[in-house]
């Protein structure tokens, strides 16, 4: 087996790894990217329903979850969403803003991958796919990376192997294990941006409503998200539920407002006044999707005419609509989670360079680090920004 030397080896050919390699390559450093997958940037390919929500024009540190909310500031400032948008423009990729500042390719996520691969080629970055990493060690100022295609040596090692989300796509705990080997701390990882699951009667109810989408506000007690919510065969999904899941801890309740834009009690009272002979469901249908209206009526006072519903009963129904308290039994877990919350403790990294404070030349970037964005292009922006910073300093 051969033995090769590089200035920098990047572990992981995802968004963060490729971006750091490009930036380091631009500085004239010799760079090799290693990945066990057959293809690079597979998560970019499937992201945003195949159109890659590649950044968010409203990127701001407050959109990121971390034990240290200040950590992400430096990287996000050194390489901003506007910098990435300028590169996408230069490539001629057409895109549009879908909602809430989220930028998606008009055509396909593969255009972003092609842009990254073009930049790798232009800056002499080598990419070794289908390559297993057997072990990493450091002697003096040099890292030895043992792989299935031979030993490699480098001055700087950038770890960009991501988190635990979607094991079927090749996610592994590699970054955490390597970090521990070098004495860095790990913030317990958990799935984020993941659908909620329910049990018992609630599950039966939600599964009946599977496919119904409603604009809802989900409050975790810490934060609330007002976006689309989707009933599924397992529970709740859609942007509002995914966002809330990143802040939810097992055992906690969430509060759902199914009619955020309407004063439910006032609407019910108005319905009673204007249509006293109507059944509850037909009044609920004026401000809720029909199947949801039927379901709420069935669980409360379906057989009553509006005229027969007392104020107390209307208050009870209004509460069921605007302050529905629910206890998820869990989430769908890493199988479907878009991201992993937690990871390499930011206390052990420099926010200016992404280098480990106690191991010169060792960098961690992207999702492996305890910085997780909201839904909406923030996670890729973190991959670009943290990758850029490591690429400048490795
Ligand atoms: P990423 O996981 O992308 O890359 C890690 C690489 O390391 C992979 O290529 C993997 O094969 C490799 N690897 C792992 N272990 C290894 C090992 N032991 N040996 C060798 N190689 C190893 N975000 C966003 O901003 N907008 C969006 O539209 C979406 N959409 C989306 C959809 C879905 C279905 C998912 C699952 C996720 C998203 N995301 C997203 C999140 C986004 O994909 C994610 O945050 C980034 O891909 C993280 O980039 P990284 O480069 O850090 O890790």
UniProtKB/TrEMBL annotation:
<dbReference type="InterPro" id="IPR055178">
    <property type="entry name" value="RsdA/BaiN/AoA(So)-like_dom"/>
</dbReference>
<dbReference type="Pfam" id="PF22780">
    <property type="entry name" value="HI0933_like_1st"/>
</dbReference>
<protein>
    <submittedName>
        <fullName>HI0933 family protein</fullName>
    </submittedName>
</protein>
<keyword id="KW-0285">Flavoprotein</keyword>
<dbReference type="InterPro" id="IPR023166">
    <property type="entry name" value="BaiN-like_dom_sf"/>
</dbReference>
<feature type="domain" description="RsdA/BaiN/AoA(So)-like Rossmann fold-like">
    <location>
        <begin position="7"/>
        <end position="393"/>
    </location>
</feature>
<dbReference type="InterPro" id="IPR036188">
    <property type="entry name" value="FAD/NAD-bd_sf"/>
</dbReference>
<keyword id="KW-0274">FAD</keyword>
<feature type="domain" description="RsdA/BaiN/AoA(So)-like insert">
    <location>
        <begin position="190"/>
        <end position="339"/>
    </location>
</feature>
<dbReference type="Pfam" id="PF03486">
    <property type="entry name" value="HI0933_like"/>
</dbReference>
<dbReference type="InterPro" id="IPR004792">
    <property type="entry name" value="BaiN-like"/>
</dbReference>
<dbReference type="InterPro" id="IPR057661">
    <property type="entry name" value="RsdA/BaiN/AoA(So)_Rossmann"/>
</dbReference>
């Amino acid at each position: 087996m051969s033995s090769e030397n590089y200035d920098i080896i990047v572990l992981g050919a995802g968004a963060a790894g490729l971006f750091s390699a490009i930036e380091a390559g631009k500085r004239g450093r010799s760079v090799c990217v290693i990945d066990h997958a057959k293809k690079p940037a597979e998560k970019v390919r499937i992201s945003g329903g195949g159109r890659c929500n590649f950044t968010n024009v409203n990127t701001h540190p407050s959109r990121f979850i971390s034990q240290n909310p200040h950590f992400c500031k430096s990287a996000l400032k050194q390489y901003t969403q506007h910098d990435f948008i300028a590169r996408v423009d230069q490539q001629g990729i057409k895109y549009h803003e879908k909602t809430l500042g989220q930028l998606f390719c008009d055509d396909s996520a593969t255009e972003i991958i092609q842009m990254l691969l073009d930049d790798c080629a232009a800056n002499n970055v080598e990419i070794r796919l289908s390559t297993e990493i057997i072990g990493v060690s450091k002697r003096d100022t040099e890292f030895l990376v043992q792989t299935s295609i031979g030993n490699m040596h480098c001055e700087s090692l950038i770890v960009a192997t991501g988190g635990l989300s979607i094991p079927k796509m090749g996610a592994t705990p590699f970054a955490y294990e390597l970090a521990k080997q070098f004495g860095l701390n790990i913030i317990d990882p958990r799935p984020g941006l993941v659908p909620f699951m329910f049990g018992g009667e609630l599950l039966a109810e939600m599964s009946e409503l599977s496919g119904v989408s409603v604009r809802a506000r989900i409050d975790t007690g810490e934060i609330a998200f007002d976006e689309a919510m989707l009933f599924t065969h397992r529970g709740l999904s859609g942007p509002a539920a995914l966002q809330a899941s990143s802040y939810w801890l097992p055992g906690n309740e969430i509060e759902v407002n199914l009619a955020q834009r309407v004063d439910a009690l006032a609407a019910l009272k108005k319905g009673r006044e204007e249509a006293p002979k109507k059944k509850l469901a037909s009044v609920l249908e004026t401000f809720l999707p029909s199947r949801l209206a039927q379901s709420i009526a069935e669980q409360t006072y379906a057989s009553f005419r509006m005229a027969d519903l007392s104020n107390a009963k209307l208050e009870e129904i209004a509460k069921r609509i605007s302050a529905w308290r629910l206890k998820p039994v869990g989430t769908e877990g890493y199988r479907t989670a878009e991201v992993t919350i937690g990871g390499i403790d930011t206390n052990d990294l420099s926010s200016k360079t992404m280098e480990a404070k106690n191991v010169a030349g060792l960098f961690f970037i992207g999702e492996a680090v305890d910085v997780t964005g909201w839904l909406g292009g923030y996670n890729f922006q973190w991959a670009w920004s943290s990758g850029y910073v490591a690429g400048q300093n490795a």
